Prior knowledge:
Layout: H1 7-15, H2 23-45, H3 55-90, H4 97-138, H5 144-169, H6 175-209
Helix pairs in contact: 2-3, 2-4, 2-5, 3-4, 4-5, 4-6, 5-6
Amino acid sequence: MTQDLTVSSFLSQLSSKSPTPGGGGAAGLGGAVGAALGEMVVNLTLGKKKYAEVEDEMKSSLIRLEDIQKAFLRLADEDAAVFAPLAQAYSLPSTTEEEKARKKEVLEGHLIAAAQVPLAVMECSLKALGEMEILAAKGSRMAVSDVGVGVQFLRSALLGAKMNVSINTKTMVQREKAAELNNKAQSMAEEGILLADGIYAQVEAALKTE
Length: 210
């Protein structure tokens, strides 16, 4: 499991010719890092007299961020898990018409399943960015730069996952289904970019004035 690997062993696997972990796993791990930075900001805010009035809000945010971080790590593993049967499906025989039809059917099912994981990563990214928006406004000013760094990790996770949706929908036979998945990913990407860039601008402004 991704969470059980050392940083060096994950990077070693990532840099190898093995297809997993790949971009999907990296997006999941990047999202987890972004969420963890949000958790750090919360922990630096909790217990401080200056932020006493947002104590309960910070505690609630911490619980949500912890759940999101776990989800990112789970999805990093799921990305590798759904790739394995997809890769095997490409190797199915396709000599006869019956074999070709069967291969097409199996591939289609695995392509749809494989697209669901990055879509879930995008959803987690949006949730985490929502928490970062709160932290940018109410979290410890001493850690506002960490909010900005976390936002960039989450932005990368969001857009990286979008590309992983596209690589799976690209060869789908059901073009209406592919369009549905692509439109969902595009909508989340647009929402996330707007949110992430707005938070980052807020962080930059805080760094210049405080």
